[in-house]
Amino acid sequence: MKKLAVLLPTYNAVDYLPESIDSVLNQTFTDFDLYVYDDCSTDNTEDIVSKYKDTRLYYRKNLENLGIAKTLNKGLEELLPQYEYIARMDADDWCYPERFEKQMDFLNKNQEIVMCGTQGYWLKDINQNPISAWKYPTREAYIKIYMLFAASFGHSSVIFRSASFDKFNLRYNENISTCEDWDLWIRVAKMGHVANLPDFVMKYRILENSNHRSSGNTKRHLEERSMIISSYWTNFGISFKPEQVYDYYYGNKTMTPCDFIIKLSVLIKTFNLLYANTENNFVIAERKNFSYMMVRRILDFWKRSQVSRFDLLIWKVILKEVTFMNKIKLLKSIIR
């Protein structure tokens, strides 16, 4: 069995594709093959790829546009039986030369890990070289709780262990069109161990017309997120319907103070229970970040409700009912 295959789907991305391919072919770890899966592009993607003479580069083109999830699954069906590991890469992203070397070294030393991601910089200008950025969680316990609120992995950064994907029949959900990665991460984390390296070895290009950022996909994206998160809450013994998740996380309905307080109390009780059931799994820094993350969710929900921030009754409810943060820190968070 070969060592590593890189699965790179593309659709009409010739403006960025060469940079992505070059960054992969310039890796310090060289024992891999790169597969470009063209989802029936109408630009000159095929001409661009054909100019490369590297024997590790393979090109596949769909006869019709299948969408990202089906294209990725098509790649997995071909590559999983042939390669020990599958790395993901997107046509508009860029990876540092040491990316594969660091991940493969980690995976070889930690055989229980099913999927490994990294840190990365989110940039409108891929030529920028930042010196700091926010981080995905690295420890498994916090990764799993973080997925209740965010995806926890950069899609382009992950490497899968093929044997585990085959054993548990892990594939992308083809009914999800905007956050198929988040859904997969949740199912992977149920079946095996996951990790993120602390190393910044990726650059993600921020494009306003990308699949989940385009204005035409916004509503569908948030609805799909809500469905995924709703299902994941049950892992923690808590039931939130998709419409409740949408309301608490993303909705912009104007509420009366009375209606808002009722919903706010449910959210606070849920967060209190979640924290009480999981806090012993975290180190001190994670517990702090977790509590602040939940407070930010509460305050964001308050802001979107259009209920006045000067309503003292709501201040009283939050200060009285929140138990996962001490009152002084909580008060400071509300004031800010």
Radius of gyration: 22 Å
Give the total of beta strands.
Answer: 8
Low-confidence segments, given as residue ranges, are: none
| Intertermini distance | 56 Å
The number of distinct structural domains comes to 2
Q: What's the CATH architecture name of the largest domain?
A: Alpha-Beta Complex
Mean pLDDT, nearest integer?
95
The H-and-E topology, N to C, reads as EHEHEHEEHEHEHHEHHHHHH
Structural class: alpha/beta
- How much of the sequence lies in strands comes to 15-25%
- What general form does the structure show? elongated
- What is the CATH class of the largest domain? Alpha Beta
Percent helix: 40-55%
Major beta-sheet overview = 8 strands, mixed
Strand order, sheet with most strands: 3-2-1-4-7-6-8-5
CATH topology value of the largest domain: Spore Coat Polysaccharide Biosynthesis Protein SpsA, Chain A
Query: How many DSSP helices?
Result: 13
Describe the structure.
Keywords: Transferase. Residues 6-162 form the Glycosyltransferase 2-like domain. This is Glycosyltransferase family 2 protein. InterPro entries: Glyco_trans_2-like (IPR001173), Glycosyltransf_2 (IPR050834), Nucleotide-diphossugar_trans (IPR029044). With 336 residues, the protein is an alpha/beta fold. It contains 13 helices and eight strands. An eight-stranded mixed beta sheet has the order 3-2-1-4-7-6-8-5, with helices on both faces. α2 links the parallel β2 (32-38) and β3. The protein is elongated and about 70 Å long. The mean pLDDT is 95.
